[in-house]
């Protein structure tokens, strides 16, 4: 009998507070949406199993507990990430400008982790403190990012300030990052976006 290997992929979701990160995850994993705003949700991550080709994949999707307001998410959040989703609200210009900051922050954090791991490896000779959880240094050109422009449902697009082409241009000039327009509220493109997240993370394994 063929043994089926299960692959665990860690996905982190970054973006300004209020853009809909938690809502996108809830819609994807629990098929639920609430307009009630909760800045802090207890769980570190939620998981969802999916089949990609002949592989059974467990997506482990990490949410912030609102600390993104202070941009201090801690090393555990970033450690071993296989994909990083960057979310903005298409109705809030500032949240789109912040993509640059979150992109850089991710690259900086994973670079710092790499340095720490190397120092520990040198100090402790063979023992790798993070076992196979070590993130390879995130190369901005190859690390799988994905950008989600969320809340496209609002006002039927009348309050929109970040156009699809503006977001797509930013993605193209930052290493051809895939771009999805989403609505956590209407469950628009949510499965598609997370499926692409899983596929790109798997391809990069
Ligand atoms: P987070 O801080 O990035 O995790 O954002 P939340 O998921 O907590 O969402 C912030 C607010 O925006 C909440 O009131 C949500 O109900 C609302 N929201 C999230 N996604 C959407 C969406 O796609 N459409 C609309 N209309 N509201 C949304
Ligand atoms: Mg949240």
Q: Mind describing the biggest β-sheet?
A: 6 strands, mixed
**Quick one: how many beta strands?**
6
Low confidence ranges: none
The set of bound ligands, ions and cofactors reads: guanosine-5'-diphosphate, magnesium ion
Run of helices and strands: EHEEHEHEHEH
Strand content: 15-25%
Shape from CA axes? globular
Strand order of the largest sheet: 2-3-1-4-5-6
Helix content: 25-40%
Give average pLDDT, whole number: 85
What is the helix tally? Answer: 5
* N- to C-terminal distance: 25 Å
Instruction: Assign the structural class, choosing from mainly alpha, mainly beta, alpha/beta, alpha+beta, or little secondary structure.
Output: alpha/beta
Radius of gyration: 17 Å
Membrane topology: Lipid-anchor
Main location: membrane
Subcellular location: Endomembrane system
Family: Belongs to the small GTPase superfamily. Rab family.
Would you give an account of this structure?
The structure is a single chain. By secondary structure, the chain is α/β, with parallel strands linked by helices. The protein is 33% helix and 20% strand. It is built from 5 helices and 6 strands; from the N terminus they run βαββαβαβαβα. The protein has helices at residues 21-30, 75-78, 93-123, 164-172, 190-203; strands at 6-14, 45-52, 55-62, 83-89, 145-150, 179-181. A 6-stranded mixed sheet has the order 2-3-1-4-5-6, with helices on both faces. It is globular, with a radius of gyration of 17 Å. The two termini are 25 Å apart. The mean pLDDT is 85. The structure holds guanosine-5'-diphosphate and magnesium ion. Guanosine-5'-diphosphate binds next to α1. It is found in: Endomembrane system. It holds the Pfam family Ras.
């Amino acid at each position: 009998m063929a043994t089926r290997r299960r692959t665990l992929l860690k996905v982190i979701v970054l973006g300004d507070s209020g853009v809909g990160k938690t809502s996108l995850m809830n819609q994807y994993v629990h098929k639920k949406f609430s307009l009630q705003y909760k800045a802090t949700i207890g769980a570190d991550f939620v998981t969802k199993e999916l089949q990609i080709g002949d592989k059974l994949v467990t997506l482990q999707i990490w949410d912030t507990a609102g600390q993104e307001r202070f941009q201090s998410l801690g090393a555990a959040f970033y450690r071993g990430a296989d994909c990083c989703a960057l979310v903005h609200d298409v109705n809030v210009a500032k949240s789109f400008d912040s993509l640059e900051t979150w992109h850089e922050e991710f690259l900086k954090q994973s670079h710092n982790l790499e340095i720490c791991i190397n120092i520990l490896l040198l100090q402790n000779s063979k023992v790798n403190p993070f076992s196979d959880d070590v993130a390879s240094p995130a190369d901005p050109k190859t690390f799988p990012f994905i950008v989600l422009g969320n809340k496209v449902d609002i006002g039927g697009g009348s309050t929109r300030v970040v156009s699809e082409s503006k977001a797509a241009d930013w993605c193209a000039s930052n290493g051809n990052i895939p771009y999805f327009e989403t609505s956590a509220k209407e469950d628009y493109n949510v499965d598609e976006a997370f499926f692409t997240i899983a596929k790109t993370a798997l391809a990069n394994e």
